Amino acid sequence: MTDGTNPTTQEELTEPLLPQGDDVESIPPEDVCATTDNDDTNNDDTGDGDNTTEFSFQNEVAEMVNLGIPLAVSFFCRMGMASTDSAFVGHIHNGDNSPEVYLAAAVLSDMMVTLCITPPLAFNQIVSALVGQAMGSNNPKMAGIWLQQSMFWIAVTMTPCLVGLFYVQPCLELLGFSHEISEVAGQYAKWNLLWPVPNGLYQCLRFYFQACGFPRPAMYNNLAFLGINTLLNWIFVFGGPIPGWNGFGFIGAAISLSISRTMQGVCYFIYMFLIKEHHKHAWPDAGWSFTHHTRERTWEFLKQSLPNVGTLLFQAVSSQATTVLLGRLGDAAIAASSALSTVTIPWSGTMSATCGMVSGVRVGYHLGRGDGEAARRASWLMIHFITVMCILTSIVFIPLKRQIMMIATDDDEVIDLAVKVVAAMLVGNYLNLLVGNITSVFGGQGRPLIATILSFGLELPTSIGGMAIVILVLHGNLIGVYWWNAIAGGIEAVIVVWLLTRSNWAKCADDTQRRQEADSNEEEEDAATEPESSLERPSDETSSSDEGDSPETPLIERV
């Protein structure tokens, strides 16, 4: 469920405060099915493909940990970069504006940047699905073709969308925000022009290599640039170690982020493509070439990616609409909400993105083996993990809430308001994590329509509509807004848990196996008996896909 005051869905956490998702990326049903075939090579505790293998709690936990740790570290670093910028902004005392104004301007600028760059992200959200399917169908060279398609469409569509960043100030003033905050936010947005295209291309590369079985390089790269971004913020915001220079102040955070996100992709490309050449096992023979991109392949790519444009745009608009509504409560409310997001997104966003992806992969893996009961147990295992982690987090957060909030800002007014809503925020976070994880399970089952219906039919009236009533009709405060979001999350949690308990896991397993057969090459019968495949030892697969770059290769059918 979308929670504008403290976003937790993967799309919201993508870039720069979206998750994204980090690194967030939401897994379509095709991705889950395809990835699970490959994922059992990385997590091959039952590599014989026998769907009668007894479910092992210990093995399942081990597989989830092995898959989840690199993803969690990577997601944490990606979202930590955005939180680092906000933390530095919240400590600026240059006499021009208060930290409260800078925090509010930063979150409003991020809102507008998010709305501008979200639609093109649909073209990289599908990469992991197509690459995973190509690897699972024993046709790895098609993976490189899908990557090239994604990078082309990202570059072509993202560039014109950035024009909107020149009009952030008039848009915010039109929405009723003060001239002071709108002007500062407009300046900040213009300094974010440089990173969206390189960052979008980096996402394409990251999803491609993760689906090919190389998740750790992205983790190390993100770790390195989390530290680099912190250093750059210190230098460009406050002057760092340079004597007599006080930095660029507020816009220094945007400059730091632009440099970090741009160089992050450049370094990753150099390492993966030029130094290690990890792409070779899943790359067409002609390399970077338009000859691969036949009309049929291009149309297939667009058919699978264009529907995501509407979905991502709806999620971004509904999320940012709450920021606009919070603006009716004043600058202090926006600043307090921004401070809360700064200290909670790194852990809540990391859990949301990681648990959702791990659930989708493991559920799909078991369903691909035809073992619906194991898939059911894996889904509930992750739900229990989320519950325990949220309890432990609350035990630490509640008694130390003021000290934790001081990480984001040293403005006493903002801290005093933020600590009052910590309890509601923690409850809402848990419920949103629960809902997000279960919707990922639905994706693993091949039932993404459930999440779509919930987004349009439930989130819009309960979350956005309810918040509008609290603020505009009842004239509530920030505390009431956070508690309403927790209530709305509880309503959706009850519904998705009920739907999960009513799932026909045997039918889901049958449907998943039929999809795998439909997506397989006819000549893959021998490979089907060899579950140790593309992800674990990609170099062993190269020789088994002689037809991978042939135009006659069957396109992956839509699920």
From TrEMBL:
Q: Which GO terms describe its molecular function?
A: antiporter activity; xenobiotic transmembrane transporter activity
Q: Membrane-crossing residues?
A: 101-123, 143-168, 223-242, 248-271, 378-398, 418-442, 449-475, 481-500
Q: Which UniProt keywords apply?
A: Membrane, Transmembrane, Transmembrane helix
Per UniProt, the ranges with Polar residues bias are 1-11
Q: Which Pfam families match?
A: MatE
- The positions making up the signal sequence are none
| Protein name, per record | Toxin extrusion protein 1
Family per similarity comment: Belongs to the multi antimicrobial extrusion (MATE) (TC 2.A.66.1) family.
Among InterPro entries, the record links this protein to: MATE_fam
Could you tell me which residues belong to the region Disordered?
Answer: 1-54, 510-559
- Top-level division of the source organism's lineage: Eukaryota
